[in-house]
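Researcher: Structure for this, please.
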Amino acid sequence: MKKLFLLLLIFTPQALAIYDLAAINITPTEDKISFCFEYDTQADNLYIATVTKEAEILFVEPTPEGDVVLTQWSNNDVPIFSNNPKPICLNPFAKSDIQPLQLYAGIGNSLEDVIAQNRFIKFFDGFPELPKPEKAWTVMVYMVGAELEQARHHWASKDILEMLQGTTSHLVLTTGGSTRNGWTTVKRSLIENGQQYVIEDLGEKSMAAPQTLSDFVSWSKSNFPAQHYALILWNYGGSLNQLHQAYQTIRQQIEKPLDIIVYDGSLMASIEVAEITATLANAMAASAELEPAHGIDYAYLLNNIDASPPDNGLDFARVVKTGYIQQTKNQGTFDTSQITYSLFDLTKLASFSDKFEQFAIEFKELLKQKTFLNYETLCRVLNRTPSYPQIENALLRTDNQAIRLDLYNLLQTVEPYSTELLNHLDQIIVDYETNDKLQPQAGRLSIDINITNTAHLDVLPKAYRELNEGLVYYDERKQLDGFTPTGSIVCFRGIICGCGQWLELQADDILGIEAYFGQNTDNIVDIYLIDKSFYQYQELNEDLNLGVNGHKACQYQLCVDEEQCENITLTEQNNQLVADVLLNDSPALLSFCQTAGEVWTVCRVVPQIEGIWGRDDVLSPGDSIIPHTLHLKNDELEERQGQALIVDDLASLTLKQHCDPEKGAVSVAYYSLNQERQFERLCHCGSCICQEGDNAPGCQEVGFKSGVILKR
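Model: Predicted structure, token format:
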């Protein structure tokens, strides 16, 4: 047993190490180093062992006085370091005393359990000598743990485990920015040959501060020279202004630009981020959408750049993208999340920026005139342009305004600059992939149209302020728009229609229509399902009949088991149903996917922390979900909160559907350029469905009992 354990310590890869079970806080100072441990899960036994140069195994055992003793291993008596969830530390050791030792930590019910499940890690193996000799690549990863590390899943540590699978490149990390033990201070580490070495602890610093980032890059280049440099920002939460300041400082300190900057975070493939990044790097890789929590695949990236070192940043980016897309497929997020990834040649950005400035100046001058035609055209363009994150469209409040639009799609509708600007973008965006089959061009690059928070315009080229000022003129014109389209309730072909009615509208007056499905309760319609893309403006050559599917007028409930259920309002989005909820008292969106057995289960969780969308996440036992529902009374919407549901068994968390045809209710909300919604009930007394042999004219001609008629 003893020899077997020693062999496992030496030769077993650490892919199933304990970072997701316990936090290990390694704190080096100038001449000493200390180690602290804290469980993140229900505590098993924690074992600490050291292997000496003579291959002797000694177990570390605490004494009642707070010291530790080293105990030789006896097969019948294995000392337990701790079985207490409270933090426990090894007192500071002199670096000279501990340098020759290797330290291991393992968690399990017994030592046999630790070995069987490979739940151990070598957390100390001496101190590396610096600086290191030159290599082909130095990869610098700046990891802001934040809520992604402090939550139960420890996504940052999971990525470190990927990195520990081995690399021959220089791989250096700065970690911090989270409340998890070991992440409250800023640490600099080296990962080499499958081992993480914590080299420095800088104490409590802001990871968003420009100097923290710029000092890291300077330290990395001084100690880890290479022919090529890549900077990866993991979940960076600073502003564009802070990023610009850091990049300016770094650029002044280095002879040539970095080969590439990779953003392992959400919503970073924007033209504004590209402009800032171009001041420091020749290439960029990022997603315009929310990333799944697993992020990019570091094991794939590092293994491939070791096997075939890239010649430049774009080739490095291609490896990042290939690994990212494949990992989303392997983990199932390619089918459940909105996946996009783009690679940018930033050396081509200047030519686009020059032409974009001409466009932005003319754009502002046109909107400054506040003519109806320009206002109408822009309203229609903005309404049909995809926005990010796409799932945000499922928020129940109707005043939600997208601030990130798809630049590629937006420019397709802009004349006379569309062709030239798109050609420039095609030279910048050298590679791109998405899982969006409906809009395969969407997701390459976004643009910020927010007119409220504009501090970032100070560090961007002139074009972006010109564009923003044009949008301000557009918003002022929109505020003056008091037009309300009017519709008439009619019967299809003018024949008596009973409960199922049709709404007749002038097509040119309508920017969009949403469909609402639910059940009648007295004079209130309980809304359970919304189709926000029921209709978007299009040029019509003839009248358009839009039938509403009454089969959707059902009740939906979110259930954590057979007995505990709450009503819930859902929004259709592609092949998913999305719910606006409170998750552990914070806003979140839950997506439901239908299984082969036609059961709706949670397939995506998108939390919002302090107004900022996080990465896609997963639910865990113990999570609290408070569903929201909408209710239509007197043509006004009312939002209500349900009771909290506590997740126990994830497999039991499902949607239940109950359809009572006699209570079925269908309504629509229609709006013009100012997006002020008007509600109309189309079916309010049941019988919203065409039955076999139904003589209603709508059923006879178009297969629907109620709907909307748009008159050309």
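Researcher: Any notable elements?
Model: Residues 370 and 476 are 9 Å apart (CA to CA). The chain has a mean pLDDT of 90.
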